[in-house]
Amino acid sequence: MTAFIIRRLLYMFPIVLGVLLVTFTLFTLIGGDISQQIAGKNADAETIAEIRHEYGLDKPLFWSWDSQFVNHFKKALFFDFGRAMDRERISSKILRGIVPSLMLTVPMFIGVIISAVSLALIIAYVRGTIWDVSAVVICVAGMSIPYLSFIIFGQYFFAYKLDWFPIIYLPEEPMIKSVGLPILIGILASLGGELRFYRTIMLDEMRNDYVRTAFAKGLSTTRVLFKHVLKNAMIPIITNVVLTIPHLILGSFLLERFFGIPGLGYLMIEAIGARDFFVINAMTFIFSLLIVIFTLLADICYAFVDPRISLK
Amino acid sequence: MRQTKAYLIICCILAAVWGCEKKKTAADGEMVICRPMISKVQTLDPTNTRDIYSALVVSQMCEQLYVYHYLKRPYQLIPLLAESMPAISDDGMTYTIRIKQGIRFQDDPCFPDGKGRELKASDFVYAFKRLANAKYASQNWSVFDDRIVGLNDFREYSKGFKKEWDVDYSKPVEGLQALDDYTLQIKLTRPWPQILELALNDYCTSPVPFEAVQHYGVDIVSHPVGTGPYRLKTWQRSSYIELEKNLNWRGELYPSEGEPEDQVNGLLADAGKPVPFADRIIFRIIEEDQPNWLLFMRGKLDVMYIPKDNFDKVMMPDKKRLMSFMQDQQIKLTIFNDPSTFWVGFNMKDPVLGPNLPLRKAISRAIDRQKYIDILFNGRVQVAHGLVSPGLNSYDPNMADYGYSRFDLNEARALLKEAEAIYGKPIPKLTLAMPGTDTLPKQMGQLLQRMLEQAGIQIQVDYMDFPTYMERQNKGQCQMFISGVSASCPDAMDFLEMFASKYFAPGSNKFFYSNPEFDALYEQVAVMQDSPDRLAWYRKLEHMILDDYPAAFMTHRITFYLGHDWYKNYKPFVFGYGVLKYHRVDVEQREQFFNRIHSSKKEGK
């Protein structure tokens, strides 16, 4: 397994380098020059040139030891992403955004997983009944409603009409109060799709012989579902769960924007809107790194939950 | 049993955290102003501030030499950090300004012992030099380019350094002298009658102590150190800004004079009282309309704009009064002209549009501006007949008779035929550059496309993000473009400047409009002091622009502003931002509002 992990870690370098290359090329060649934007509407050519120099945009793109890409690569390697267009350090922006994003996405993620898996087990158990059909209909309806509608309705009804939650994130209130509603909305909006996914997995498992045998031996329904079926359905669950974790760190774009939560999702949206390539590049790099790491973690987890899998 | 216990513990923890006291609440009787902000603040460094959101915050903390009187109209400049109005030499080239004594910067760790030091005339010299420092690359430099004797040389000199703070600020600039600790002298390269309005009244010339720049370096953007009534307490970027009273502030009294109706409107009720009234100011940065609106209706924001989607629900059909349910909640509406002009600009270097005046006029005649306003803006803007907007000194109400703003499809078609004769063949499809990719720009683009099609003019709309748009515009790559400008002072000179050929893009002349006759007259008028003659020349310049039609002027903005009844002393103030010190919240009245909401909720309304 050690050899497998080392080999996979070595694979990371070309993958991450490739991501850096692609994002850099896309943003610099297609995105154009951002110096005019930083310099302001009526800036003279000198000011624009000075800004180009300050941000290293006057250097060659690729073919030099001091090229923009090499500098970009070096910065990424040491996690020193430099300064954003508003001259704040990008690392400070990212560090500041992680906690609010995680405060929102982790409970949302746990809530979705626990409720979707539990409900999926129950629905799989009552498959073919009116309960199963109703659940599928509700899931499809939930999936069909745009995420934004959940947010707009939830904010209006639960926060404004019922006054159960603050309308937006209020720094002067405990964080948990501010994120309560976005978490609830996030769970409700994601439940439909997740529930359908896990229901399919559980149904596949429920048809296996070992389930029939377990019931025949007289085991309780709870024991069969939560001990035997759940354990055997772990591979797709792990894949889904582990690969979702990097997205948690990136935050939730829409929820953060509508509730004014200063997380990484909001940061990313703002950076895209302002064409702040320095922030976008940094975030893309971190995201790709997380994806690679968590894919490796998922592979390792497989070996732990399924003895038939060995990592070589 | 174990599971039940675990659930109970989790529930207890959640309930405890949920119900725990607020981290900080408004203390009893504490006056807090809460305002929405629909865009993030870029910087709190006044010298590089250009966007209105940053300016709104910066202006509460930093002050400049002069400011417009809060209540008097027409707008009248009065000293702020200056002791009196400047002594101007007969040739209009030298301004000598006395600075108030005893003004202190706010306390800050950048000073020895953390105590703010006294403001000196040399701080203004430093502020101007910093603005000129090429390595600092201020967005505001274009205002000062070639205006002050020796300042351009200082800019040249600064280019020889690697970093902004390597530049030696002790290098003298002939046109900027601190004659003593409290006297500043500015010598101009040529008369600049608008210097007070455009420069000395602008937050970009607010003094920033050199100690702060040295102490914070690049991070000065988030550590403003000013002389104003407020100081920064918290800045959670993209989310929340909180200002608190600056205890070092010298103090000032609420104005006792204003317009006659100010007395009736209660704007003089606080006359002579010390300001600032509010203990804290909170800006909530939320870019979406719905949460802002809900917060306002819950009383969590004191003032609010009317979002487009809510406009018809809250305004009477006459668009002048609020619906009764809004009035019942004692919400007040203020409507005022926000001096600004928006247009469809033509690139005069373009081989199709540039030499073809009838084509440009045909485009203007084909646009039904009133329909455009009704469909897209719920009547929140008014038709622009010319360049200069209402609210500016040289606005000409008779301009409607002069330009080509009237919708006339038949005339548009006739002009198009004339245009085709000049071009020698049918006019090809034109391209309109539209900044923004959201719903509104798309609706604007589609509507214009449809209107022009009716006259037989085909256009293609290119939607792009703002930086791309700016880049193309500055390179002269936009054939037609949607653009606009907001006035920063009642003098329309910076509107007219956009058509002088010396300001070709990347300067303010994005039309690449060049008319030697206009340029000559502009140069002549630009150095004239304010007088009835100058007003007539301003109008003549505007007529010249309309004769050549480098832009089809479309709209002027009207602002509809809502405020709760407890928010006092609000008067539209369009040429500056540092007026929140005059605003007051009636804390008791606000409390009554919350009680009303609480009881109506209990009653299930």
Which SSEs are present, and which pair or pack?
The complex is a heterodimer of chains A (312) and B (605).
Chain A: H1 2-30, H2 35-39, H3 45-54, H4 68-77, H5 90-125, H6 130-144, H7 147-161, H8 175-206, H9 209-216, H10 221-232, H11 234-250, H12 253-259, H13 264-274, H14 277-305
Helix pairs in contact in A: 1-14, 5-8, 5-10, 5-11, 6-8, 7-8, 9-10, 11-14, 12-13, 13-14
Chain B: H1 2-19, E1 32-37, H2 52-61, E2 66-68, E3 77-79, E4 87-88, E5 94-98, H3 121-132, H4 141-144, H5 151-158, E6 176-180, E7 183-187, H6 195-200, H7 210-216, E8 230-236, E9 240-245, E10 252-253, H8 260-264, E11 274-275, E12 280-285, H9 289-297, E13 303-305, H10 308-314, H11 324-328, E14 331-346, H12 357-366, H13 369-377, E15 381-383, H14 409-423, E16 430-435, H15 439-454, E17 459-464, H16 466-474, E18 480-486, H17 493-496, H18 516-526, H19 532-548, E19 551-564, E20 567-568, E21 584-585, H20 587-602
Parallel strand pairs in B: 1-12, 16-17, 16-18
Antiparallel strand pairs in B: 2-3, 4-5, 5-7, 6-7, 8-9, 9-12, 10-11, 13-19, 14-18, 14-19, 15-19, 20-21
Helix pairs in contact in B: 12-14, 18-19
Structure commentary:
The complex is a heterodimer of chains A (312) and B (605). Chain A is an all-alpha fold and 312 residues long. In chain A, 76% of the residues lie in helices and 0% in strands. In chain A, α9 packs antiparallel against α10. The longest helix of chain A is centred in the middle third of the chain and has 36 residues. The radius of gyration of chain A is 24 Å and the shape is flat. Chain B has 605 residues and is α+β, with helices and mostly antiparallel strands. Chain B is 33% helix and 18% strand. Chain B starts with a helix and ends with a helix. The chains are: A mainly alpha (312), B alpha+beta (605).
